[in-house]
Amino acid sequence: MTEKTFKAGDKVKWDHSQGMTTGHVEKKLTSRTRIKGHVAKASKDHPEYLVKSDKTGARAAHRPEELRKA
Length: 70
Prior knowledge:
This protein is mainly β. It is 0% helix and 50% strand. The chain has one domain (11-69).
């Protein structure tokens, strides 16, 4: 299985409860990071990506398997 990787500035899309949304990758997270009271349990072995929504401007951490290039 090939690991999905993204870099800062990549346009991505993902599913959520209101449907599909798009945004841009801000950075790769490789350590535990607190975002708006939530702790993203990212690590070097299991990175997550900080993504900013194009629609709302909200930032959230997403696992690579949740994201697709837009």
